[in-house]
Amino acid sequence: MDEFIMNNLACHTEREAISEHRQELPKVIDQIMASMADDTCFAHIGDEPIHFTTSVKEMIDKFREILFPGYFAREKIDAANLLYNTGQAVSQLYDILSEQIIHVLRHDCLRYELRCAECEPRGNDVALEIIQAIPNLRRALAQDVKGAYDGDPAAKSHDEVIFSYPGLYAITVYRIANLLYKQKIPQLPRIMSEHAHSLTGIDIHPGATIGNKFVIDHGTGVVVGETSVIGNNVRIYQNVTIGALSLPPNAGEKLRDAKRHPTIEDDVIIYSGATILGGDTVIGARSVVGGNVWLTNSVPDDTKVFMESPHLIYKNQEKEKESLHENPA
Question: 181-186 — which CB contacts under 8 Å span 24+ positions?
């Protein structure tokens, strides 16, 4: 009985403690509301919400369904239903894409009090142009698939590359986002690239210029900066950075339109862990950059750049033990 009373008292005490904590919440809410008036903080409160990444994912999935017919559709695609399914998918994609573009255009107009961008006509025009570019996108991605397959002995088929290679997913999203970036559509291209980044660990800025047959092998930790220029038939491995040199605190405004990232010419291979920095840095055609190399200067055509072999120390643990017994400290 005593034990029952003790447990009951403990429960009441815990509930009272929880209640006391909850009574503090209105004060905290008041403080949070007061911070809404602080111009140094950020809030987005208004009639035009920022769009959600779930709809961006839906858009990317629909693009992939059309770019690689039969690979990512929910139903079987054959000669009997190909035209119908393609028509449905393209129509759905146009609606999603135009809505997203109109949304971001209107968002910027209202939020930053810009001159009217004619959001709906512009959004519909750009969406149609992107849809019209799909045949060329399919040809470009076919080259990327072939490049990945031809250069990777572990790849058993083109289908394996399309279904499972994170590098191809990141490149696919980049090539779509790059078209929107060139049309000066705000926010959406970067949200798309960051979605791919979150899934693959590969960060390709949509403003980068990338040629045909681009291959990212393994991919984790790859960074390609906004003003990078990459030629045809370039292959890079995991943890490669094609980035900018260190920037001053006010770099945002000073260097926003400057070329800050390297140029990688045709047929270059860059191995894992390499870091290549600077807008004036050019890696010449057919060059090879070895693993863990750090470059801030240009490299001529047909050059191999490797780190000097490190000095390795080998220790045999069993011999160390014997040595300690023979020569105790």
Answer: 181/206, 181/207, 183/126, 183/129, 183/130, 185/101, 185/104, 185/105, 185/126, 186/104, 186/105, 186/107, 186/108
What pTM does this model have?
0.82
Topology given in CATH for the domain delimited by 47-202: serine acetyltransferase, domain 1 (1.10.3130)
> What's CA 12's distance to the chain center, in Å?
51
DSSP string, 244-288: PPP--TTHHHHSTTS--S-EE-TT-EE-TT-EEE-TT-EE-TT-E
Q: Which amino acid is at 34?
A: A
Average pLDDT of the chain is: 88
Tens digits of residue pLDDT in 284-299: 999 999 999 999 999 9
Return the CATH number of the domain spanning residue range 208-248+255-308. Answer: 2.160.10.10
**Residue 181, CA distances (Å) to 20, 47, 59, 205 in order:** 52, 25, 16, 10
- Determine the residue type at 141: L
